[in-house]
């Protein structure tokens, strides 16, 4: 039996060990590339959501629904173009071979400027037809002003891709945080001072430098005119496949609104839209942060075995975050929905639908993580080939499910995700791994993860 003094010392040591756990955890996270990057990007997503919610609560009391409608049309016309600008070359630069980077980054930078100028011209040209389609001539100038962001993003796009490649995800996170805070402050200020619809438009352009500056501060790059454009084909081909997947994702996240709204009416659409955003909204934000960190983490190695082991570890950590969050959100929905969002959503039957969308977050996590693996291993074409028929099946499933109301539509989405995730993982990841086990190391190097130049030759 311990003496009293020894017992006291043992208690002090135990207390000290317990008190040191937070510091040990923080040191472990900061020293781990994936955990550190995921932590930074997750924090940016949370801060962004908090400020967007605060802005919505304040601005909704100051502006009319007409202004919100006009802004929604202008911002929607901007969304697809922003996806094109964001993914056109960045995904390629993150996974490019070291020996290719020095030359290819100049081509990617030139392509960023060409794409920015093209998108600016196209959006300005479409501004008048869009405004006339909605019988809102006042939309012309807001749509044109939003297009100015395409002329500003190339100042930092390549820098952002290099930061992600070097796992400097804190720079990307800081840019996102500064943008979210700046957007909120400017929007509220302009709304209070009576700028109307411009309060929702101008900040989107004015805060772009707040994202660009952290990217340029963290990585140095001196633009040069490419000596050769030969590699542009491989860059465009890689970016084309990534863009295809992203555009199909946008289509899937919007087609249900069209189907439910047209077949069940505006009231049913409101309940469905609320349940999807409240159920999958935060999960999608977490997944966005985790998968961006995972892609950077996977691209840090060009050898098959480290990529494979990194993916398995990254997937495990991603599911370790998503599954408890989904379980917590789904099991407490009946309590927090009336408190946070109001009892009217309970009366409209949104809670069961919200829970269904919560559960869809788990197979979605498996899909999104595996998709990053395909990009990192230069198999973007396989990803695009899979998502083309899946998007068609998604649309058909919604058309069938909606016959049983919004509950049927939500169940159709969940069932399709549950069926797709294991098949997607088995065919594109697990089965692919089993096939490569029969290859020699030289075969794996040449066949499993081809260089961008090899892709261009194909």
Report what the structure shows.
With 458 residues, the chain is mainly α. 84% of the residues lie in helices and 0% in strands. Helix 3 runs antiparallel to helix 12, helix 12 (232-264) runs parallel beside helix 18 (380-401) and helix 13 packs parallel to helix 16.
Put the structure in a nutshell.
With 458 residues, the chain is mostly helical. The chain contains 21 helices and no strands. Helix 3 (65-87) packs antiparallel against helix 12, helix 12 packs antiparallel against helix 13 and helix 13 (266-298) runs parallel beside helix 19.
Low-confidence segments, given as residue ranges, are 439-458
Helix percent reads over 70%
Total separate domains? 2
- List the helices and strands in order: HHHHHHHHHHHHHHHHHHHHH
- Give a short account of the largest sheet: none
Helix count? 21
Given the helix and strand composition, which structural class is it? mainly alpha
Residues in β-strands, percent:
under 5%
Task: Note the gap between the termini.
Answer: 75 Å
Strand elements, count: 0
Rounded mean pLDDT score: 81
Principal-axes geometry comes out as globular
The rounded Rg comes to 24 Å
Can you lay out the helices and strands and say which pair or pack?
Blueprint: H1 4-31, H2 33-59, H3 65-87, H4 90-95, H5 98-133, H6 140-146, H7 149-152, H8 157-165, H9 169-192, H10 198-206, H11 208-218, H12 232-264, H13 266-298, H14 304-341, H15 343-347, H16 350-359, H17 361-376, H18 380-401, H19 405-436, H20 441-448, H21 452-457
Helix pairs in contact: 2-9, 2-13, 3-5, 3-12, 5-6, 6-10, 8-11, 9-10, 9-11, 12-13, 12-18, 13-14, 13-16, 13-17, 13-19, 14-16, 14-17, 16-19, 17-19, 18-19
């Amino acid at each position: 039996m311990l003496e009293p003094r020894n017992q006291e010392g043992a208690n002090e040591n135990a207390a000290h060990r317990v008190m040191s756990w937070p510091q040990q955890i923080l040191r472990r996270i900061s020293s781990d590339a994936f955990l550190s990057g995921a932590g930074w990007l997750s924090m940016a997503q949370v801060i962004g959501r908090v400020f967007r919610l605060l802005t919505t609560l304040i601005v909704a009391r100051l502006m009319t629904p007409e202004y919100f409608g006009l802004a929604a049309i202008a911002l929607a016309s901007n969304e697809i173009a922003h996806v094109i600008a964001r993914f056109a070359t960045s995904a390629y630069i993150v996974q490019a071979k070291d020996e290719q980077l020095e030359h290819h980054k100049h081509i990617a930078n030139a392509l960023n400027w060409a794409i920015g100028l093209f998108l600016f011209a196209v959006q300005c040209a479409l501004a008048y037809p869009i405004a006339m389609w909605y019988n809102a001539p006042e939309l012309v100038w807001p749509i044109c002003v939003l297009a100015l962001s395409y002329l500003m993003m190339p100042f930092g796009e390549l820098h952002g891709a290099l930061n992600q490649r070097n796992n400097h995800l804190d720079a990307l996170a800081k840019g996102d945080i500064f943008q979210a805070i700046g957007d909120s402050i400017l929007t509220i200020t302009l709304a209070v001072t009576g700028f109307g619809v411009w309060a929702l438009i101008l900040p989107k352009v004015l805060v772009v430098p707040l994202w660009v500056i952290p990217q340029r501060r963290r990585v140095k790059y001196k633009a040069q005119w490419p000596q050769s454009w030969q590699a542009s084909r491989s860059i465009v081909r890689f970016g084309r496949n990534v863009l295809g997947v992203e555009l199909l994702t946008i289509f899937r996240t919007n087609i249900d609104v069209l189907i439910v709204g047209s077949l069940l009416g505006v009231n049913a659409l409101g309940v469905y839209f609320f349940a999807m955003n409240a159920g999958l909204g935060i999960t999608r934000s977490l997944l966005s942060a985790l998968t961006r960190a995972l892609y950077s983490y996977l691209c840090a190695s060009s050898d098959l075995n480290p990529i494979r082991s990194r993916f398995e570890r990254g997937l495990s950590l991603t599911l370790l975050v998503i599954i408890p969050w989904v379980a917590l959100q789904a099991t407490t929905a009946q309590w927090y929905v009336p408190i946070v969002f109001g009892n009217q959503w309970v009366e409209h039957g949104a809670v069961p639908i919200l829970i269904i969308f919560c559960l869809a977050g788990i197979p979605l996590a498996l899909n999104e993580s595996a998709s990053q693996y395909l990009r990192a291993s230069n198999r973007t074409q396989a990803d695009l080939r899979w998502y083309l028929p899946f998007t068609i099946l998604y649309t058909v499933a919604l058309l069938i499910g909606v016959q049983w109301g919004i509950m049927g539509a939500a169940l159709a989405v969940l069932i399709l995700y549950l069926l797709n995730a294991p098949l997607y993982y088995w065919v594109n990841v697990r089965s692919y791994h089993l096939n490569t086990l029969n290859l020699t190391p030289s075969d794996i190097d040449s066949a499993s993860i081809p260089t961008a130049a090899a892709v261009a030759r194909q």
